[in-house]
Amino acid sequence: MTRILLLGGTTEASALAKTLAEAGADAVFSYAGRTAKPVSQPLPTRIGGFGGADGLADYLQAEGITHVVDATHPFAAQMSTNAVGACALVGVPLCAFERPAWQAGEGDNWVQADSIEQAVEALPETPARVFLAIGKQNLAQFAAKPQHHYLLRLVDEPEAPLPLPHTTVEIARGPFDVAGDTALMQCHAITHVVAKNAGGAGAAAKLTAARGLGLPVIMIGRPKVPERPIKGNVAEVMAWIAHPSAA
Ligand code: NAP
């Protein structure tokens, strides 16, 4: 019997959940619990951490999971690393459902950063107006450059005071479009964009908008995760579920 654990959080995870539900698959969707109102899924859903790789290994055995699909955000490196470790420990096959990283194209002015620290360093010393499009984690590191005004786009209202002195908070959930992001950046007189290289369509509008406005983008590269088979679309994941050893 096949029983799938789908580690979610991305639009790809939601698309796969829909296909699995339509196929009548026995599957559990897992959220980290980072947002107050996660998108509801057509699969039984659990929310919250497993307790590291060992906790996940215990969960896989207790729940009789036969396949794990890691469709977490490309920056959720801890979860992805734990999933590889747990699956190896209990002999459950795993694949990642991952969108390709964005690539700079004609007209883009990107500065590559390998870490949040490098992104902070890449910002100018003179006061700027920065669209800090990196979600709610890692904001504190930008306090090293308090001279800038930061536009933050968050899914939920912040629960605690923000660690940055000059901010504007925009509450919104993607997908976003180019016209809207262009207007947002113009309205806030943005001079720099900071983004994580998440890939995918839903969050790419800010990059097209930045190109159109001639703004520099400080692009933070993806963290490293252990090797695992990577699938690029729902059909590939479904084929892998049918024949995981063919990966
Ligand atoms: P993480 O740092 O890889 O995970 C930290 C812990 O959260 C994991 O060890 C695990 O806890 C738990 N966890 C993560 N994903 C889970 C899931 N799907 N189901 C159950 N537990 C899960 O990941 P993160 O804290 O979620 O995010 C890290 C980075 O990804 C951040 O940079 C964030 O901005 C980005 N992110 C972006 C989005 C987005 O939609 N833009 C969504 C998510 C994350 P245990 O060890 O206890 O099992």
Order of H and E elements: EHEEHEHEEHEEEHEHEEH
Number of strands: 12
The number of domains is 2
Instruction: Tell me the overall shape.
Output: elongated
And the CATH topology of the largest domain?
Rossmann fold
The whole-angstrom Rg is: 19 Å
CATH class of the largest domain: Alpha Beta
Q: In which order are the strands of the major sheet placed?
A: 3-2-1-4-5-12
Q: Name the hetero compounds present.
A: NADP nicotinamide-adenine-dinucleotide phosphate
Number of helices: 7
Mean pLDDT: 96
Fold topology:
Elements: E1 4-7, H1 11-22, E2 27-31, E3 45-47, H2 52-62, E4 67-70, H3 77-90, E5 94-97, E6 110-113, H4 116-122, E7 129-133, E8 149-154, E9 167-171, H5 178-187, E10 192-196, H6 205-213, E11 217-220, E12 230-231, H7 234-242
Parallel strand pairs: 1-2, 1-4, 2-3, 4-5, 5-12, 6-11, 7-8, 7-10, 8-9, 10-11
Helix pairs in contact: 2-3, 5-6
The chain binds NADP nicotinamide-adenine-dinucleotide phosphate (NAP).
Could you give a short description of this structure?
With 247 residues, the protein is an alpha/beta fold. It has helices at residues 11-22, 52-62, 77-90, 116-122, 178-187, 205-213, 234-242; strands at residues 4-7, 27-31, 45-47, 67-70, 94-97, 110-113, 129-133, 149-154, 167-171, 192-196, 217-220, 230-231.
